[in-house]
Design a protein that fits this description.
179 residues, mainly alpha, binds fe (ii) ion
Length: 179
């Protein structure tokens, strides 16, 4: 398997979450309310899975290794765009999280902010994923030998293995500060 295999599989799950958000947007439009539970799950999904697990492997491993290669101008440009897009995705998720907090504090006006963030994520992720799947991942693999690809796949597995521990250690640490 190529290292882009697991990344592309993760894209498929992100797309399923995006489809659910699109449905939730329609429901919000019809009923003019927010389901804070759904938004909370979406924020956690984008932080823990789409950003830390998925963008983490892209940035900390794939892009790090690509940066050591003599990339074509075009590939270097696309990689820089992808990194900038990760930053803006993170910002939108942070805005979604604070809009949700505002809403649960009783600020009904935050409904519009939540909708705007969801709309932005529903627009952003499919476009970002398409850029990677159709215009970047396959040509990028040509910079790596079979051995380098196998090593990367193993590093991906090790990265994933640590994440569940990292997540819950973080949760306990936060609680320790408050409780
Ligand atoms: Fe990405
Ligand atoms: Fe990706």
């Amino acid at each position: 398997m190529k290292p882009i295999g697991p990344l592309m599989r993760e894209h498929r799950l992100i797309e399923r979450m995006v489809a659910l958000m699109d449905k939730e947007l329609t429901r919000m439009g019809e009923e003019n309310d927010v389901n804070p539970g759904f938004i909370g799950v979406a924020v956690d999904f984008f932080r823990s899975y789409a950003d830390r697990t998925h963008h983490g492997k892209e940035e900390d491993i794939l892009f790090r290794e690509l940066a050591k290669k003599q990339l074509s101008k075009e590939h270097r440009k696309v990689m820089d765009e992808l990194i900038a897009e990760h930053v803006s995705g993170r910002k939108t998720v942070a805005s979604l999280s604070s809009a949700r907090a505002n809403y649960t504090r009783g600020n009904a006006g935050a409904l519009g902010d939540i909708k705007a963030c969801l709309q932005e994520l529903v627009r952003f992720y499919p476009a970002h994923i398409e850029k990677e799947d159709k215009h970047f991942f396959y040509p990028c693999m040509e910079y790596f030998s079979r051995q380098e690809q196998d090593d990367m796949l193993e590093e991906f597995r090790e990265f994933d293995r640590k994440l569940v521990h990292e997540k819950y250690q973080g949760i306990v640490k936060e609680l320790e500060k408050k409780v």
